[in-house]
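Got a spare moment? Tell me how you read both lines of this record:
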Amino acid sequence: MKSARSLLAATALLGALVAMPAYAAAPEPKAVVATYANIAQAMYEDALKAARDLNKAVDVFLGAPTEENLKKAREAWLAARVPYQQTEGFRFGNPQVDEWEGKVNAWPLDEGLIDYVDTSSYGEKSDENPLYRANVIANKKIRVGRNQVDASKITKKLLSDKLQEAGGVESNVATGYHAIEFLLWGQDLNGTKAGAGTRPATDYALDKCTHGNCERRREYLRAATELLVDDLSEMVQAWSAKGAARKEVTAKKANDGLATILTGLGSLSYGELAGERMKLGLILHDPEEEHDCFSDNTHNSHYYDQVGMAAIYNGRYVRTDGSVIEGASLAAYAKEKAGDAAGKVDAAMKNATDKLGAIKARADKGVEAYDQMIAEGNAEGNRVVEEGVNSLVAQARAIEGLVSALGLKIKIEGSDSLDNPSAVQ
């Protein structure tokens, strides 16, 4: 499902990893933070545009639910992941982003909340989640605790206000990219063997409907994609000239602004990506722990997280239309103020990009998908993923070294998978 446009975009993005604007002297921290905010706005704008393209593709598919139109909707979803994943470096240091992120990218999810599932692989129930098999598409009334929720009409409000994290259970994910992913692909029932989800287009057909409730499934898919556009619009506004997220970070003292940038990069590198998204799945050899588990797109999600981190650090982002947003960078500031530590960050970022690129290349070339790489007994696949984990840990350690050299203080998010692996065995 690769296009010439996507290949060109990937080439341009890869070029961004090694390109860095030159400065005669260290840029002012305020200028570095301003570039950071400009890149945030541009990245979220690109993510919003891609989500709108996805919404259009879904509309076409629902208008004519053929296998070809389903394929195009899936391709639009895959394309939408590229710009969004690059934004994840803005989490952790920016509370507004981290609080918002769960609406659009929460995972893993108990998909039985949304639609039918194969219980032979999914199971019948969960002690932790009473809504494990609630199947809102098949049921017009859902009980959440003591309350009965009217789900007779599937709307954006129902998904966001009533079902998202219903009952206080984080795995009740009703909105965002992964809910849409499940609706487009269905469950991946292949375990650690080749193959992604194979939901048929007829699940959305008004005649010859498969698996029942096709009209409600159509309502859910439409509401979820429209809600994704709404949520991304909110974040674009937050980083606009007068937006709350931009105002918050640019109003900080110089060192605090730099610390915000490094908190996001360090926490995504270590606790989130290396730990929760990669090491955990590798320890458990569990395909349910891969990020884009229905579509087998995890190799791209991990890689573009790293692309985004490099863009933020280097103050240079190549947009999906090929234009470039760049300015005073943390990399340039660090080079002048703490050259040795900055050199270690540069080397660690290049190594992490290479190692995550190797995972991506292995999947793109058809050697095996990410869920196969983490399978028990797959020594070579495990090694490639482990090297990716180690490179991200090294990147986080280099960032910590830079923090110390610059006289800053940050707290990097941890992960039991890395800090206490016996707890997840």
